[in-house]
Amino acid sequence: MLSILEPIEVFTDIIDKSAWRLFVDSLPSRALELGIRVVLALVVFFIGTQVIRLFRHLFKKTLRRCNAEKGLTQFLDAFIKVALYIVLVATIARGLGIDATSIAALLATGGVAVGLAVQGSLSNLAGGVLIILLKPFKVGDYIREDRHGNEGTVREIDLIYTKLRTADNREIILPNGTLANASMTNVTAHPERRLDIRVTVTVDTDIGKAKSVLMEVLANETAIIKEKDCLVFVDELVYSGIVLGIRCWLPAVELLTTRWRLNENIKIALDKNGIAMPDFCPSLRSK
Fold it and tell me: Which of 158, 234, 147 is nearest to 185 (CA)?
């Protein structure tokens, strides 16, 4: 029985040695071929990144020529960047010999897995699309997010996040899903805003004289829009005095600085005309 199996074992051993020798002999050529493919892949990746950068530059330049909003330009640029890099990586993978069907299956499987893992990010992506389409605000607007009280000037609308810059130069990053699904105040949506100031004077004050003094202050303020009504009125009678209301309209961009200036000028004018304010009541209250 052993004499019968011995030739078979010898033949198998010869085949195994021949296959191993063939593999060893072909290894340098295969390594060289793989190395060339890797180098070509790196070259293609480098060239592809430069082409993507050039395409994005031309795309943004075209949108600016079409007077597209800055937020729309930023959003589409981020979307195109991700899509082009996916195409580039898939192309390089095919160049390395990976089958296109395998790439598609991998992307599909990875997409499902990533989708389940980043459901919040997908919600933010959908929120970004809604912001771009519905335009509740745009880059350059000053907004106030009512849920957490975050506010600032919109600096960038990205795929997932919107970036705000505060008055003291801090940066706030808000998820697009939060902005799309919560109440929000767009402070600079309109070019003009109304300013309301309340001034409390003592009970024995001559109301007519006080109103005349305040109207004179408003008349001397150049930032006030004169085409709209400027009002001075008795807003409230309280135990400590008389509350006079001031109402006028200003350009939205000058609201804060004008309010500060008016507060100062009102106090100076009242002191100059001998009009006193109660000791235990806030003298000026603005909103």
Answer: 147
Contact call for residues 160 and 129 (beta carbons, < 8 A): no
CATH architecture of 2-117: Orthogonal Bundle (1.10)
Nearest CA to 255 out of 224, 231, 218, 284 is that of 224
Q: Is pLDDT of 5 > 50? A: no
Q: Which residues contact 5 (CB under 8 A, 6 or more apart)?
A: none
- In this structure, which amino acid lies at residue 161? Y
pLDDT band at 233 (very low <50, low <70, confident <90, very high): very high
CATH code reported for the domain at 192-286:
3.30.70.100
The CATH number assigned to the domain with range 129-186 reads 2.30.30.60
Domain ranges of the chain: 2-117, 129-186, 192-286
Cα–Cα distance, 99 to 105 (Å, whole number)? 10
The pLDDT tens digits of the residues spanning 201-218 come to 999 999 999 999 999 999
User: How does pLDDT run across 119-135, given as a tens digit for each residue?
Assistant: 556 778 888 888 888 88
